[in-house]
């Protein structure tokens, strides 16, 4: 099957993850997470995050939506960048399930602009207006950019100063950790993140994400929330088992580093043939402007998404199993279509 630059969701599953799933497919164990394998996975997370509560859910949308559901008060609203994943790519699920309004903030790089966010606090005590009580950010962002530790700390301080909670959508948090050269905890709990959606599917897992509650008070009723919202898996061992080698054997690092490294290689090779790269490349996404006349034909061999049709900007995402050969073949095809 041919490789694609459409998304890291298109990739397969890391071989060692598959082996772990097969390993736990032996005999009968307790269902719904009351098994030793799930407890081992939870302990793996506690080893890297400290005193937290951990829950496993099926997918990224479930992780983000239920994180927000667990954080909300009776009249909460959520501040987030206008191009955040929870705004653009979850079909309105956050608002439908939680009932909360998403208060969007203009952004050119996918990051939250704190000065622009302040507009949602000027009427916080006016019951005619939405009550902003949660901030949600993505690490990495939808534009492939990465918040620095100082930027996350500033957002966390802003949240705390205004009696708000902070959620991080970490669908690609492993790519961010590799890019920043820091630990997961240094990027999250140490900086005041209250709840983290910890992604694995985009980085070599078959399915499943983890919700990490640094603010354990918010987790008290989450077992019920997860069940009510259709995200409790009965044969939990097959989901949770993946995270044991993923964390213990640093598979997360291996996968994310390869994806990030290949993205850098792709960026350099595009620039060599004078294809403009429009955004800083730190993780595993490259945004570039391709000549309009070659896009459709190029997609027949290497699928990718058009990000901004007006300027012919495309998004190219590398994965844990992407190779330099994949990039070389992609560049070769571009040259062929351009007659170079």
Automatic annotation (TrEMBL):
InterPro entries: ArAA_b-elim_lyase/Thr_aldolase, PyrdxlP-dep_Trfase, PyrdxlP-dep_Trfase_major, PyrdxlP-dep_Trfase_small. Gene3D superfamilies: Aspartate Aminotransferase, domain 1, Type I PLP-dependent aspartate aminotransferase-like (Major domain). Its cofactor is pyridoxal 5'-phosphate. It comes from Cetobacterium somerae ATCC BAA-474. One of its GO terms (biological process) is amino acid metabolic process. Residues 5-289 form the Aromatic amino acid beta-eliminating lyase/threonine aldolase domain. The keyword Protein transport does not apply. Belongs to the threonine aldolase family. This is Putative phenylserine aldolase. GO terms for molecular function: lyase activity. The keyword Manganese does not apply. Keywords: Pyridoxal phosphate. The lineage of its organism: Bacteria, Fusobacteriati, Fusobacteriota, Fusobacteriia, Fusobacteriales.
